[in-house]
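Data card: per-record layout.
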Amino acid sequence: MNSFTVLFLLIFAIVTATQFWLAKRQAAYVLAHRDDVPEAFTHTVSLAAHQKAADYTLAKSKLGDIERALGVGLILILTVFGGINAAFEFCAARIESPLMAGVGAIALLTLLMSLFELPVSWYGTFVIEEKFGFNKSTIAQFIKDEVMQLTLAAVIGLPILTLILWIMDSVGSSWWFWAWVILISFSLLMSWLFPTVIAPLFNKFTPMEEGALKTRISGLLERCGFNSQGIFIMDGSKRSGHGNAYFTGLGNNKRIVFFDNLVASLDDEELEAVLAHELGHFKCKHVVKMLITTSITSLIGLGILGWLIQKDWFFTGLGVEHASNAAALLLFMLIAPIFTFFLQPISAYFQRKFEFEADDFAGQHAQASKLVSGLVKLYEENASTLTPDPLFASFYYSHPPAAVRIAHLLAAKSA
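The structure for this 415-residue chain is written out next.
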């Protein structure tokens, strides 16, 4: 056990303990407020709905603890107990090309990790979601989705992985920069293709019918100067009772998408306000800012990996006996979230800031009161807790807590 092993285990233990502690705080806070609807929602959310949201949050928290514990065991097995090393030795003994042996080892381990996570996913869907009335999927649909995701990962991911590993082997010390160029280009291409090529493999997208709602939304788009390739209704209800709306795509391939159950839940003015919020992300350039941030952080990450690859202690400290670019890439992807965990509140803070800005935009181009009423309906129908632990929210919430968000909208409306 070298010094890096000790450092890794120490940081891993601190991060894991913090995660369990935050989850315990969240569960205790939600339970303590289970029997009292927050004052801001006393006239809009029933006690029964508030208690359902609390129970749903607590059930997911318990499953999260189990998933976290299993994840800890899996990472330790893969690293310090030699799982990654065994997989690479297994593939190297059977595949002549070192490049393809590396690709094979990463593919094998990715498949095993996906299968390892499957029981938790199944339980979450067919026990917890079913219990609270959200699951609309069937076992056949669940299996189909899992197979489709693995197939897409293989068809799309393996060629890119092979190209990245080839560049790492062939280009020299500047490989990390060219790998970054390829990854960013690929990410932009996937974002552009997603609405018309990837998403339709999983859901049906129907153009919104002519009528009062489409006329209202078209007027909003015109006021906001937003051009898209259409407004679509997605059959989200075939898998889940949770509703949502979003816009997707880049350039001239942008689409606006409403879940069918969202359309059924909200009135036309509320749907207009929810969409105005989504358009706010676009008009405030949040998408561009996130792309720039992702590009910078991925460049820094690849630069750090380029340095780590040259250090024997990086491999031996994580249970790998024979250094290789493929092993380094996999090790880095596994441990990077651990070493960057305490940066998470910074990212979450800016995401919540973007949500406030999008809400302000919506209040200027639609009725803020309708956004408030639409959000309250979504909180209630999705069983989203109205009383999260503030510290837990600061780490994990990409959206402001319900009471904070509603108060911000009402303050902006009265200003």
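Known properties of this structure: The longest helix spans residues 98-131. The chain has a mean pLDDT of 92.

See the next section for split statistics.
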